[in-house]
Design brief:
Shape: elongated
Radius of gyration: 33 Å
Number of helices: 22
Length: 756
């Protein structure tokens, strides 16, 4: 606690989590001093008790320092950070006024979806690597971005699926949502009982009065909440009046049953529904009627008027390419109802406008003897409404960072979405993809699309692959491969040092060796498949290898080694890099291999399963960045409402644009493209071997499927990174390794069988 390194170490880590990924030495020193002295002075206001390690003083120094508060740094592209995944989810729920009918809510499978969940660490090193340098501008500048550790295709897709589902359905498991239950039909018209985002949301149960189709911003849209059959999306669009371009009307889609239902209406004495209708052909098929109000489905309806044959409805309306006005009386047995619209014939076009529920009686269309007067009602919308909504969303979700270009794209999406609720939902979904939401940066777009990613044509060269498996945490390899038949002094020395964690020789699985200090070595008893692979000459061991640059002992290692030998995270990093002299800074051993092979005309694919793999990183601009898939292959993407608009929010950016925001946008667009490409290639590929369901085996199965897709990907060489956890065994070493090695054994056995 009183070590000289404690204060700067804690200061750096806390600043990274709370303010900025790359604090200046001055900032770290200021916070460390507050920790050690126990006080912090901010313009005469003293924080802290004066005792060493006072956290009040430390946090005051973090939040009140000029580096945390000055607006000048907003213009520095290297300042700022990516936001933590879980904090983004909570920020959406808080700022968008999440409301639940339950006192407690439960999130499901969040860590596996976005990589982070409260009290659910994969290892003692938390969720992020504090020294992580991602691909792109951040890494090129030798800066760190701990949160980018989780910035891979499965987690990017998982985050966007979850946030989009939250905006659409509330808290549910629909389309990759973060909830644990499904809403009815996974419909955005049926709020989840576990909670919804109530910000500016209009209730679908509000009584219907009239509809002008002018929309929330008076440039076309639904004034009310309309739903489709069985609470699904309605079919049809608001469009300009074909006979008056200044007016907006609803254009029906041809479907035999009703496709558009209003909000509920409570019948009062002598109630009629008035409307205007245009059919561009004789018997164009437009129909209007009423439906029961049913909490489970909206399917039973009574057609009152149809532009068609007499057996379709109670009454026939004839438009003949002219707007007509009609009304119908609501039957007394419909105490509560919905207005239903449809188009039952694929001939011509059917349009509706100015639907009103008013007092009156009788069912007829306008004529000299029976006039139907449509009241001139003011649309409920307001000019500029979408601008106000998008600006407020930008303030709440991006702290005002969202650029004007992006706001305009989102305003246009809002106005063309349909109702105010539809527009709000689409605007939320789009902003929740933006770099300004996922980082603390400002971005400057070049208004140019990003480079298109595609698989190359095959080279015709023989195929080879390397699979790198990392035992995260530090595997106790001396219980994996052990001396067995050796000179007595060697074996006895080994057993003395290993003491109580040593495995008795009788339990070893022996393997022969030549030109070694021992004629036989022993394998852990839970590794029989590894023994078989070795005996079949399909496997070999490299023992006592690492990143030491010369022989050392405990008296001189601290002077003669280039790496930190007792830091788990750094030793694992070095084993992925194999570059102790930093000759190729920021690269991994497989990435440099890929660079070399790429320069020799090979098509090299690089894949990491479930997370970024430093070992796959090559020199910038030499070969393609590694692709990241999940342990089940490629996750589905549920961004259908906004997929055509996302690209325009994530165009290429200028060199002085925020590095962290650029990192998000680049990884997002790359992830969506790779997801599409790999989904197409892997959808029909199955393995010949039935793999176990353990985590390692699922990763090996994904690797096997990718290997099978090599021809369609044009690859003649692939490098893969696979990682398993649970090897940081500070206690119960023997029991932990028995479980871990059983997983390894069955995983390698299935993988080898598949490859053979």
């Amino acid at each position: 606690f009183y070590h000289d390194n404690t204060a700067p170490f804690l200061s750096t880590r806390l600043i990274q989590r709370l303010v900025s990924s790359n604090p200046s030495p001055r900032y770290v020193k200021t916070v460390a001093t507050a920790f050690k002295e126990g006080t912090y002075d901010s313009n005469g206001k003293i924080f802290g008790s004066g005792k060493y390690g006072d956290m009040a003083a430390m946090f005051a120094a973090i939040y009140l320092d000029r580096e945390a508060r000055t607006l000048v740094l907003d213009a520095d592209p290297s300042s700022g950070a990516l936001r933590e995944p879980l904090l983004k989810v909570i920020a959406v729920m808080r700022s968008m006024n999440f409301q639940s009918s339950y006192p407690l809510i439960r999130l499901g499978n969040v860590r596996s979806t976005i990589g982070q969940m409260v009290h659910d660490f994969e290892s003692v090193f938390s969720f992020f690597l504090p020294e992580f340098e991602p691909y792109g501008r951040v890494g090129d500048a030798s800066l760190t971005s701990p949160e980018a550790t989780l910035l891979d295709m499965p987690r990017i897709v998982g985050m966007l699926n979850g946030l989009t589902s939250l905006a659409k359905y509330g808290l549910s498991n629909c389309e990759g949502g973060f909830g644990t239950i499904s809403t009815l039909y996974c419909s955005k018209n049926v709020p989840s009982p576990h909670g919804v985002l109530e910000f500016l949301r209009t209730s679908s149960e509000t009584e219907f009065s009239y509809e002008t189709f002018e929309g929330a911003s008076l440039n076309g849209g639904l004034d009310n909440i309309w739903i489709g059959r069985n609470y699904a999306d309605y079919q049809g669009t608001v469009t300009r009046d074909p006979q008056d371009s200044s007016n907006y009307v609803f254009h029906m889609n041809y479907v035999w049953h009703a496709t558009l239902f209003s909000q509920p209406v409570t019948r009062s004495e002598s109630t009629v529904v008035k409307f205007q209708y245009l059919g561009t052909e004789d018997k164009a098929g437009g129909c209007i009627g009423i439906s029961n109000v049913d909490t489970l489905s909206v399917v039973e309806k009574k057609w009152v008027f149809c532009d068609g044959w007499s057996n379709w409805a109670d009454h026939v309306m004839e438009s003949n390419n002219n707007w007509i006005s009609c009304q119908f009386e609501v039957p007394s047995d419909f105490a509560k109802y919905r207005i239903a619209l449809g188009d039952r014939r694929d001939v011509g076009d059917a349009y509706f406008d100015n639907i009103q529920v008013v007092a009156g009686s009788g069912t007829f269309c306008h004529s000299t003897d029976t006039p139907v007067i449509i009241e001139d009602k003011s649309p409920p919308g307001v000019l500029g409404h979408s601008e106000a909504v998008v600006n407020e969303l930008a303030t709440l979700l991006t702290a005002g960072r969202l650029s004007e270009e992006s706001r305009q794209i989102i305003r246009d999406a809002y106005d063309s979405a349909g109702s105010a609720n539809d527009g709000l939902r689409v605007a939320q979904e789009l902003i929740m993809t933006s770099a300004e939401f996922h980082s603390t940066n400002f971005l400057v777009s070049k208004d140019e699309p990003r480079e298109v990613i595609a698989f190359p044509p095959p080279t015709g060269k023989p195929y080879k692959a390397v699979v790198y498996v990392m035992f995260n945490g530090g595997c106790d390899s001396y219980n994996m491969l052990m001396p067995h038949t050796c000179p007595d002094e060697t074996f006895n020395s080994f057993m003395d040092i290993r003491a109580q964690v040593a495995i008795p020789k009788r339990s070893h699985l022996p393997i022969d060796a030549s030109d070694q200090v021992c004629s036989k070595f022993g394998l852990h008893p839970n590794l029989p498949a590894i023994q078989s692979l070795y005996n079949d000459k399909d496997l070999m061991f490299f023992a006592n290898t690492g990143v030491m640059t010369m022989p050392v002992d405990k008296t001189n290692y601290w002077m003669l080694t280039n790496t930190q030998l007792f830091a788990h995270n750094l030793q694992q990093q070095e084993s992925k890099r194999i570059d102790p002299y930093d000759a190729y800074q920021g690269t991994g051993v497989l990435g440099r291999m890929g660079d070399l092979l790429d320069g020799m005309g090979h098509n090299v694919g690089a894949f990491s399963v479930d997370r970024f793999g430093l070992s796959l990183v090559g020199s910038p601009g030499v070969s393609a960045a590694p692709m990241i898939v999940n342990n089940n292959g490629v996750p589905p993407v549920y961004l259908n409402e906004i997929d055509e608009m996302i690209g325009s929010l994530h165009n290429s950016t200028t060199d002085d644009s925020g590095f962290f925001g650029e990192t998000w946008s680049n990884e997002l667009m790359k992830s969506l493209t790779i997801n599409t490409l790999l989904s197409e290639e892997l959808k029909d590929i199955k393995t010949d071997t039935v793999f176990p369901t353990t985590y390692l085996s699922r990763q090996f199965e994904t690797v096997s499927r990718l290997i099978k897709s090599r021809e369609s990907r044009g690859a003649d060489t692939d490098t893969f990174y696979v990682e398993i956890f649970g090897y940081d065994t500070h206690a119960n070493v023997e029991e932990a390794l028995m479980s871990r090695f059983s997983e390894v054994n069955e995983g390698y056995e299935a993988f080898a069988a598949e490859l053979k």
